[in-house]
Amino acid sequence: MTKIYLVDSRVKRMYTFFTVIVVILFVIATVLTRFNPFEVVASSSEVWNFVTTDFLPPTLTKPVPIFNAIITTICLAISSTFVAAVMAIIAAMFGSESISPFPKYAKLIRAVATFLRNIPPLVWAFILFSSLGIGTGVGFIALVISTFAFMTRAFIESIDEISEESTESLLVVGASFPQRVFQAVIPSCLQDFISWFLYCIELNIRASTVVGMVGGGGIGLVLFSYLKTFRYQTAAGIILIIAVTIILVDLLTSFLRTRIMQND
Amino acid sequence: MTEIALLAQDMIPAVRLCKKGKIKIKDPAQDRDLYLFLIAMIVISVLSFFPLDINWFKLVSRVPDIGIMFGKLSRLSLHHFDYTLIAFVETVSITILATIYSFFFGVLFGALASKNLIKNRWVTTLLSSFFTFLRAVPTPVWVLLALVCLGLGPIAGIVGLSVHATAFFARAFSQSFEDVPPEVIEALEVTGASKLQIFFSAIFPAALSMIIAWIGMRFEINFQESAILGMVGAGGIGFAITTSLQGYQYGVAGLAILLVFIYAYAIELLFTTIKKKFIW
């Protein structure tokens, strides 16, 4: 019986190739970490015990400092995103080859952004903590660095995508660099910029919690201290508050994003 | 100039003139929301500086110290390189295992949470809100909890990462499944195909390119997350970086950070080429 092949044999071979690679990686990783999923399943009753007796119900013993800490975390996220956005817009203007006044050096800005971006925020935080000491200000700088790198890259991409023709036509009629920026780039990319800004706020609410855990202050530090001193019920309460805050921020940003995009 | 403008105003009712007699090229009402939003954003951002208890002068004056730190880190040292390498391999293994396990759970729960597959509204809503909660709690918190339950070592890292990644995949995959046009499902339903057959021969293949893109994205995130796990107490390269920084062995830390950077950059390049070649 001859069959008609539904899938191109080359595509099929490619999928087989990828599957084999994944299986090999899986086996190697399992051997190296000695991870046995059945062990986890076997200890599930202990996990259940821990959750029901130590963890639940979530309580809040000192609501006021916890509330203050969550305000600090939110403010840290917003202010660092704002500073990073201002820096990133300027950097992106010089880093995009299509509009930069010094196109030769545009690659340099890109390279710096790539370097800064590929090191996780928490590693930044640790480098900074060991040179500047711990504190909210140092967490602020760590967040600014990683957000700046991410946004610069995103902004450069939106500028390159949208305004090639409009900037070129302005260049032809002899517009200066600031004129090109304010007449072509800003009007056509502003919505994209705002959308990325909102996305970075979402990311940074999470990141500022995590950076806080290792010494940046805010709700992360409070949670970490409760976990380290085995007061799990309060920790559960704080985790709930963090989750609710993040969900609310996500809802707000997605609402704002649809509003801004509707304007088009 | 003005006459032409007036003429245009007579011929086309939509044309409005400014005081100087020029044709308006912008409708002020059009961008009002946008400007309102921008102003509100700037005000909130400026206000958000006040509750922060930061000594700005001291902070700015110490910024040059970061340069000195980089000078110290850049003097790479091969001291204890074998330990660094083992930690790095452990981190990569954690990333791979967490991605694979959460992929399978993600497909399962993503299918159960997509509205075009499961007709029971209660199930889909309950599942998607549960995963929204799991996703909202940052990964290191899950890892810390897994550390408490399962003890130290890579197992806690894998489990903690998988919890967050599964929630991520479930959400992303169920969206991709729901994007499959209903005609495709209907066409299979009339031939009498079962739910499983519909899923594996229509929905999953149709969503495959999206799924690969999501896996690529999550693999990058998972590596970043597992690189920092060591800093909250699980093993891996993060632990190596922290201990060497705290022990003033800056050269060792510098090499470990460089390793993280090279790997993350290589993965990024790999997935951009895969995306260009095979998907779009």
Would you kindly provide a brief summary of this structure?
The complex is a heterodimer of chains A (264) and B (280). Chain A has 264 residues and is an all-alpha fold.
Descriptive account of the structure:
The complex is a heterodimer of chains A (264) and B (280). Chain A is built from eleven helices and no strands. Chain A is mainly α. Chain A has one domain: MetI-like fold (Orthogonal Bundle). The radius of gyration of chain A is 24 Å and the shape is globular. Chain A starts with 8 loop residues before the first helix and ends with a helix. Chain B is an all-alpha fold. Chain B has two domains: 2-47, no CATH class; 80-279, MetI-like (MetI-like fold, Orthogonal Bundle). In chain B, helix 9 packs across helix 10. Chain B is flat, with a radius of gyration of 27 Å. Chains A and B meet through helix 1, helix 2, helix 3, helix 4 and helix 6 of A and helix 2, helix 3, helix 4, helix 5 and helix 6 of B.
Using brief descriptors, characterize the structure shown:
heterodimer; A: 264 residues; mainly alpha; MetI-like fold; B: 280 residues; 2 domains; flat
How would you state the average pLDDT of chain A, rounded?
Answer: 83
Most extensive protein-chain contact, per-chain counts: A-B, 71 and 72 residues
What class do helices, strands and sheet pairing of chain B give? mainly alpha
How many domains of chain B, as an integer? Answer: 2
Helix content of chain A: over 70%
Fraction of residues in helix of chain B: over 70%
Low-confidence stretches of chain A: none
Oligomeric state as shown: heterodimer
Counted beta strands of chain A: 0
